[in-house]
Design goal:
By secondary structure, the chain is of the alpha+beta class. The chain has three helices and nine strands.
């Protein structure tokens, strides 16, 4: 079976933000009863991204933000600055980090590693609320056999 919802993350300014609990709060209904499946998260914006990384030490989030600023500096001679000096630099960082992540689901829970969490990487200086589409696909096994050749993603 498939399940899908669109939700908004709280407003946040530039930086890497741990949003695992906020995501879980919005997908709880879709996780119920899923023994084996996949969660796909897609951010509907071109100046923010989603990724998975260290969920414990805040320094990792600060370091990641610093590294992205070093790799893609705002001080380049950007042409597309219609919405301010962080316009094209935000789009470029969003393309590098990505708009989609996928996470396995096992026994109704996200199968993240011990130190993994979901990040919103916000590249705009001012606060924005970001919209995310969550899609859950559940693996269903044929009752005729437990053979892997009979597994279907519904």
């Amino acid at each position: 079976m498939g399940w899908q919802t669109t939700f908004s993350l709280s407003k946040r300014a530039k930086g890497c933000h741990l949003v695992t609990n906020e995501v879980l709060g919005n997908i709880k209904a879709g996780l119920a009863g899923v023994q084996v499946g996949m969660l796909f998260l897609f951010i509907q914006h071109t100046s923010a991204a989603l990724t998975i990384n260290e969920n414990y030490d805040q320094d990792v989030r600060r370091d990641m933000d610093m590294a992205l600023d070093t790799i893609v500096p705002e001080t380049l001679n950007w042409r597309h600055t219609d919405e301010g000096p962080d316009d094209s630099v935000s789009h470029t960082k969003a393309s590098l980090v990505g708009s989609t992540i996928s996470i396995p689901i096992t026994n109704g829970r996200l199968n993240l590693g011990t130190w993994q969490g979901i990040y919103l990487t916000e590249f705009r200086h001012s606060e924005h609320s970001r919209h995310v589409v969550a899609t859950i696909l559940q693996v269903c096994y044929s009752s005729a056999s437990s053979n892997v050749s009979h597994v279907q993603m519904l």
